Amino acid sequence: MTTEIYLDANATSPVLPAAIQAAQATLLQCFGNPSSSHAAGLRARAVLDEARSRARRVLGAGAGRLMFTSGATEGIGTAVLSALCAVRERRAAGLSCGDLLLYGATEHKAVPESLAHWNTLLGTGLRLQALPVGADGRHCLATLRTLAPHTAFLCTMAANNETGVVSDLDGIAAVLTETGSAALWMVDCVQALGKLPLALEHTRIDYAPVSGHKLYAPKGIGMLYVREGAPYTPLICGGGQEAGQRSGTENMAGIAALGAVLRALEEGTTFRSHAQLTAMRERLAASLRAAFPAIVFNAPFEHALPTTLNFTVPGISGKTLLDLFDAAGVRVSAGSACSAAKTAPSYVLLAMGLDPERCAHAVRMSFGPLADDAFIDAACTRIARCAQALAAPPPARCPVTGSGESPLPKPACTASPAPCDLDAGELAGFLDAHPDALLVDVREACEHALGTPRLHGRAAYSLPLSRLPEHAAWLGREARPLLFFCRSGRRSAQAARFAQELGHANVRHLAGGLALLPPH
């Protein structure tokens, strides 16, 4: 597949062309320091002020503080520091403010990690407790009603990054009001920007971090809203930039790019409406049901963002699905990108009470509000091809050796030397130097069914990693140089070690796999 269908927008998004242009113009023409008083500085200051004004209108910030940050993690850390410093001061003054740091059980890990860090560092001695969610992924308001009077700081999110579940923020606010809770309240708005209406000044929310790269701005730029009158302590001190709220010379290219995204949100002609996005999700869901009849969706659509689908296919591992989609050029994920390398079941789905097996094999598809019908059409076509590939029978005979199955014990690979890595830039030279080299694609049969690539015009044999032990005798006597490759380089490294264990003297594997090769 030469065209990529990117369905992992909750992890990050491509950059809006207008945002790229705005960043480039700032780098080339408005590169001055916005704190400088000369003309170059004043031009940069104008870009900064315009972006902040747009952000105020889009977020409905009113008279609250609104500063640019490096992203949501910094915003979360700043909010937590501010709240805990305020709690410490209140206690020192003999005021009662509760002893709980309460956070949603499905929060991004940046929240409980930041809470634990600052609670220890500041010596506030508060008790961290997760607020449970129901099977629909929404916070348990009955539990909140019990805990709110004892809560010093409450952290929830507007919409969940794994499931897309939209929190009942009005319900949470009502509980805090009804119980007379003095708790400070942070709402992670990362997945809300551009997908949910925001009018922060008319809410009880004290802190709201936002990250630009989830909505077509570059990585490294975000914002933090702080309600007027809410306590605030700077996380970064120094030269007094951002009116002393966040020191450090501003990331002007990032701010200009984010400003372009905010302009598009304000103008309302660039991004799809909620109704259009909902129709797109229904089309994706229908194609998934047709491809995988046993599919179960892990969050109710009526309470979720229209841009997110989280599902499990009983009987098919999450890894198999991820590899299959990736082979088809469809980029999806197993959940939060921050924990993608971990093999544990999703803590978000576990908190919703789902079966651990179902949680362990969940897949997330997410798209942004720039998606159009042509994009969804292409995605549905690829999904159908994935189903066809999954149903394709594995080859009865190995295409390299021509032999059938003759299982042999797999050698222990723990003591073998590391195979010789070959990166993408070295590939052409290796193939020129070794015209007789045998290229072996060790992806699984369903991935092969979606096409085996040619490397610099050279054909490759398909021999799944799971079937290598069946052909150990051939590998042990094969004299030609061997080059193994797969999607990411992990399976090819195992294959190369296996061949080395069998005594093969000239083995390579493509480090980084097909993912690092330039598109063809």
Description of the structure:
This protein is of the alpha/beta class. The protein folds into three domains: about 5-10 and about 270-390, Alpha-Beta Complex (Aspartate Aminotransferase, domain 1); about 15-265, Type I PLP-dependent aspartate aminotransferase-like (Major domain) (Aspartate Aminotransferase, domain 2, 3-Layer(aba) Sandwich), CATH 3.40.640; about 420-515, Rhodanese-like domain (Oxidized Rhodanese, domain 1, 3-Layer(aba) Sandwich), CATH 3.40.250.10. It contains 16 helices and 17 strands. It has helices spanning about 15-30, 40-60, 70-90, 110-120, 140-145, 170-180, 250-265, 275-290, 320-325, 345-350, 355-360, 375-390, 425-435, 445-450, 470-475, 490-500; strands spanning about 5, 65-70, 100-105, 125-130, 150-155, 185-190, 205-210, 220-225, 295, 310, 330, 365, 420, 440, 460, 480-485, 505-510. It has a five-stranded parallel beta sheet, with helices on one face. A four-stranded parallel beta sheet has the order 4-3-5-6, with helices on both faces. Helix 4 (about 110-120) links the parallel strand 3 (about 100-105) and strand 4 (about 125-130). It is globular. Residues about 405-415 have low confidence and may be disordered.
